[in-house]
# Entry
Amino acid sequence: MADAPDLTASWDPKGEAMRLWGADPCGGAIAAHHEGSAEFFAEVDRLRYDQYAPWLRQAAEFGAHQGERVLEIGCGMGTDLAQFVRGGAITFGLDLTTRHLGIARARLELEGVSPRLVRADAECLPIRSGSLDVVYSFGVLHHTPGIEAAIQEIHRVLRPGGTFLLGLYHRDSAFYWLNTLLVWGILHGRLFRDGYRRLMGDIERHDHTDALPLVNVYSRRQVRHLLSRFSAADVTAHHFEAGHLSYLEPAVRGVSRATLERIGRRWGWYVIARATR
# Structure
């Protein structure tokens, strides 16, 4: 049901993605601080790495690529890209959304580096073959209708032995099956009233637009298949919150972070892959 993009001639998923994140930058709902200020970025970091995904710093290997050429596909506001900068990497960022790139530029300038950013499509990378050590893309490629083409391009631009770090939404997760499909889709009737595409599209935050982005989910097996051209791939799952159980949330409320992380390795909302070219 959710394995392949649901496309029609009248729906432009890339245009809808740009419309969504042009209106509501990903991770940017920080009302207490002016967008682009040092205080704004500090709060974005706190919410992302301390509150939302404390496991991400390790999974993304921010500090493990000193001196290497790292490209982030879908760099958003430059939040993760800045962590690679702090780890000593030579960074490049790519995104479809102009507003994202403007915020990312401000972020990298605050980090003291010259931004190397380009507006481009992951399915056709404007990059020389074999020129990168690492390609990183977290929470992005499940929004592109041509994920196979994008991964082929990533394979092309990596040097032999280079690393691809990928994060996608996980089909075999509590959030997808219980919260999204069962509770919101069936019990609340949204699957029948609004359809699967809108049910999934509304997973993304919509404060200032009715945009309808493509949102796909992938099992571990499907991710391994997507990465079959790579020489090796390690695939894991991460990110479980009590709220992913919807009405059953009180049953796990107050459990330790370590316990949540253990549950996340089976039922987490993100499937994470580390592949070698």
The mean pLDDT is 93. Strands lie at 69-73, 90-95, 117-119, 132-138, 158-169, 232-238, 270-276. Residues 13-276 form a domain with the Rossmann fold fold (CATH 3.40.50.150). The longest strand covers residues 158-169.
